[in-house]
Predict the structure.
Amino acid sequence: MSHSGNQAEAQNGGAHGNITEPQITRPDVGNKVAVVLGAQWGDEGKGKVVDLLAQDADIVCRCQGGNNAGHTVVVDSVEYDFHLLPSGIINPDVTAFIGNGVVIHLPGLFEEAEKNEHKGKSLKGWEKRLIISDRAHIVFDFHQAVDGVQEQQRQEQAGKNLGTTKKGIGPVYSAKAARSGLRICDLLADFNDFSERYKVLAHQYKAMYPTLEIDIEGELLRLKNYVERVKPMVRDGVYYMHKALHGPPKKILVEGANAALLDIDFGTYPFVTSSNCTVGGVCTGLGMPPQNVGDVFGVVKAYTTRVGIGAFPSEQSNDIGELLQTRGKEVGVTTGRKRRCGWLDLVLIRYAHMINGFTALALTKLDILDVFPEIKVGVSYTVDGQLIPHFPANQEVLQRVEVQYETLPGWSSDTSATRTFQELPKNAQKYVRYIEGHLGVPVKWIGVGKSRESMIQLF
Ligand code: GDP
Ligand code: IMO
Ligand code: MG
């Protein structure tokens, strides 16, 4: 920032003084990262959008969440599913980076990589292309067990649970916030110290949940065996990102996990996950300044789905919901649970846009709507007959909202082979334009199928 104004002038002997004002030029911002974020309750098709963008990317990062995420990528009819690994790793030229905001279950990470490696050639050499931040927290087996016990207790005590993925996400982020968690840098330092701290943590959980069975020695032994394998992948994440941002031009992508309505601060609390799945999570989860955030792409499914429990205003617990579920094959990638389905709800996407500032949208699964003679879109909420301009924080209120719908004509024809916007039926084009107009955000891509090719690019 250059000094100017009266104070600086006075120090320099006045505007007409002969001391030259020092010029401190604005530092070069460096490379920008493009961010892909879920705009609903997850499973919008982030994996597929990242895969498309990763075709010419250098680095693909994950900044939050753990293996509660499930991202599907279909290449040459082979279906890969990613949970903890950034899906961009499928491109052999990509370096995948797991940032400090991610929580890592090491056995899960290796299992996932090996499973996908056996499916096709794309993951070849993945171990050399994966970088892990030393500040990332470790998910232990007992975190996953505690997740299960907590769910059981919620069911017994409150008559309902949260419907978590039981991947230990809540317990490990709780330990992080309580400052008792253990990180990758601890695992790679003195193993005796690490073991002691691990045991303290395990005993704390044992005291809290006496029925919990923890195989302390067994897990420590397994972790010790991972040390040598993980070591070459681990970096100081902040320094790694800084170098990536300020070195030669690079295309850097961030793959969001979970989604806006599952965000710990902005989601439908308490039926949320335990990390920030909105844009702020990019800076805190990678250790980078906000001015390096470039495009923020919101991924929006052409209708709405939700896995697990919690309010869902536009849910269709009827034939429409069932048709969306079966046509969309709406089954959770991580848990195999059926996803609840309903019409597109623009109120919640507008809310996600307020938080994230989407620069463009990817509208996925438009093909699933091919058979509906008419399509409804939620445009506003009323509570007790009053229109509300915001998205309610309180779950009891959210349960009571009435969605006001607009009805648009369907197109009753197969869009799965279309590859340009102009080829789409007129009513499908209108549906897309309606969404853009309502949100004031351009749609950049439209998904009409699972494969890489089934993506229409508009600009
Ligand atoms: P993510 O968690 O956001 O990455 O999404 P998931 O992978 O959990 O769920 C999206 C599902 O929809 C996957 O099975 C994808 O293969 C599939 N999918 C993504 N885009 C499209 C699309 O445009 N059309 C169809 N029919 N399926 C899609
Ligand atoms: P992707 O990245 C859909 C949901 C769970 C549960 C709640 C809390 O594939 O879009 P957690 O295990 O995180 O404590 O569970 O959040 N959930 C997701 N639902 N897609 C996801 O990820 C999800 N990640 C978490 O179903 O309701
Ligand atoms: Mg998913």
